[in-house]
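User: Structure tokens for both sequences below?

Assistant:
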Amino acid sequence: MSNVPEGATHYSEAVTDVYFAAYWKEGPAGCWAFVLDDRKDPEWIFYECCELPARAKRIEMPKTWTGEGLPPVCEDCELWLGDGSWVPCTVMFHDFSGAIPVAVVRYAEHTYAAASPKILRPVRTAEQIEAYEREQAVQAMADDIGSLPINTKAIPTLYALYDAGYRKVQS
């Protein structure tokens, strides 16, 4: 998911304290601005009979990042920390670490890292997270039972137990 507001076609940099940075989109009777000022919850504002500012540059909306190569700037994704955890992050810009292209990401309020594509992935959907948790739970059940032959019928039974609501109670 990108931080560029949906529908934006242009972007203009801030010029002075009066002219804030903004994303723009044209409408049938004017244009809309998504002003990037100090508002907590910015929203699209309609300006009747306006034209896009001369300073507004057309932006190419990135295609959805599939996990191949570097994610586009402003893309929300996940960063592998190396301790077994993935954390949400936002791509700030691209750079090089020696000859290796990297994405510089922010993953905490003021924490940045240079990340290669190998340790970045798209944000997982709710379905992907649920499937991962299901796999982990079934694996934990299999580990609790002990070693099972690979071709056993027990694994489908463990999935059925999980799907029926079985959860191990932690003491």
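Moving on to the next sequence.
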Amino acid sequence: MSDLVLVGRVVKAHGLRGAVIVRPASDGSDVLLRVRTVQLGPADQTRACRVWRAQWQGRQLMLTLDGVADRNAAEAMVGTELWLDRRKMPPPDDDEFYVAALVGLPVVDRSTGHAYGAVVGVESSPVQHWLQVQTSGSTVLVPLTDGLVQVDREAGCIRVNAPEGLFDPLDGAGG
């Protein structure tokens, strides 16, 4: 289960021939355009399914899946989660990363190198992603934005330019 990454969810049927509309787990993610097989269902009970066709439909994706031949079958798919095995995901571009790959990485101050904690999860909102950073005192939500967060692939960590007070009251360094 831990090797699966949620990549989307079926939100509605499209047309009469079994196409489904999928909302990507990350806005703008095109990973479903680049794979031919996905895992369907809850993470603990997935089944493999062939993707015959995938294309953008506005901000969502229209997929034709093996075994989904008509509108009734497509409507029955609404709510179904689509997963990929982390090891089989296409590599991200140089300036990109998979949000799920950030879980477990240490979070350090960009200037001082002070370790704040580690990423234990990622929350998503319609506007942005938030890193859930477990510190010694609690869990802090850190906005995943360019000015604040830098993913350092070479060092295997996340460097943050934390505004004053973001971590201080929670890690005992506050003043």
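User: Anything stand out in the second?

Assistant: The two ends are 42 Å apart (CA to CA).
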